[in-house]
């Protein structure tokens, strides 16, 4: 908000009463952990802070300062990790389920020069990371051991700005593009594809994707 405070509302539109101090800088993105304990906010520079909803204070030790300007961030569903999209065309993952967050991994290979691109966790136990890109593709990395993309999914004709992984189907994700379409990606049963083994030796994730299901929308 312009007054450098964060406001909360109920689903019926009524504002939730809470106390928050005024921040030093304007906040450009905000999210809340699934347990409701932390309100996570991003300034227009390189800093992400954590507001404790129980103590109603900003934790001065629980701060993330990345190496370049953070354009967007995403939280994992288990509240343990955070994805940061940076202006230098990198994605960093941070461990946040600790008193002092630390950088866990870095990813590269997609394109981001002009627009805000949003990434997400997904797949079996959120072992994978997906991101849009300005080259009209969707990129997928393994969360723990692949700095370069495992797959680049082609189908869009303009910048892919947002991706979202299905929380109940580990093989399905959606991507939204400036070409005016939302494309649903899933397993291509006609292709055998490669089999990737996750940390769980019994869990095999087939990564042969097709994006034949397309929805058009108006700008």
UniProtKB/TrEMBL annotation:
Assigned keywords, A-Z: Repeat, WD repeat
Swiss-Prot/TrEMBL WD repeat ranges: 153-188
Pfam families: WD40
Species: Cardamine amara subsp. amara
PANTHER family cross-referenced by the UniProt entry: WD REPEAT PROTEIN 26-RELATED, WD REPEAT-CONTAINING PROTEIN 26 HOMOLOG
Protein name: WD repeat-containing protein 26
UniProt cross-references to InterPro entries, sorted A to Z: WD40/YVTN_repeat-like_dom_sf, WD40_repeat_dom_sf, WD40_rpt, WD_repeat-ST_regulator
Taxonomic superkingdom: Eukaryota
């Amino acid at each position: 908000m312009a007054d450098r405070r964060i406001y909360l509302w109920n689903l019926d539109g009524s504002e939730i009463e809470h106390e928050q101090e005024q921040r030093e800088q304007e906040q450009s993105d905000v999210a809340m952990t699934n347990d409701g304990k932390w309100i996570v906010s991003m300034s227009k520079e390189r800093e992400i802070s954590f507001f404790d909803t129980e103590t109603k204070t900003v934790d001065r030790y629980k701060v993330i300062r990345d190496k370049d300007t953070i354009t967007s961030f995403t939280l994992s569903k288990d509240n343990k990790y955070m994805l940061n999209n940076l202006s230098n065309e990198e994605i960093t993952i941070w461990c946040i389920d600790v008193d002092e967050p630390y950088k866990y991994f870095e990813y590269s290979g997609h394109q981001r020069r002009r627009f805000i691109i949003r990434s997400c966790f997904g797949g079996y136990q959120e072992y994978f990371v997906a991101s849009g890109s300005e080259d009209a593709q969707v990129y997928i990395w393994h969360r723990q051991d692949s700095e370069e993309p495992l797959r680049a999914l082609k189908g869009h004709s303009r910048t892919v700005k947002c991706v979202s992984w299905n929380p109940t189907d580990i093989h399905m994700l959606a991507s939204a593009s400036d070409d005016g379409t939302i494309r649903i990606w899933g397993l291509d049963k006609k292709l055998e594809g490669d089999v990737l083994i996750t940390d769980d030796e019994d869990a095999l994730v087939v990564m042969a994707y097709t994006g034949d299901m397309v929805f058009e929308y108006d700008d």
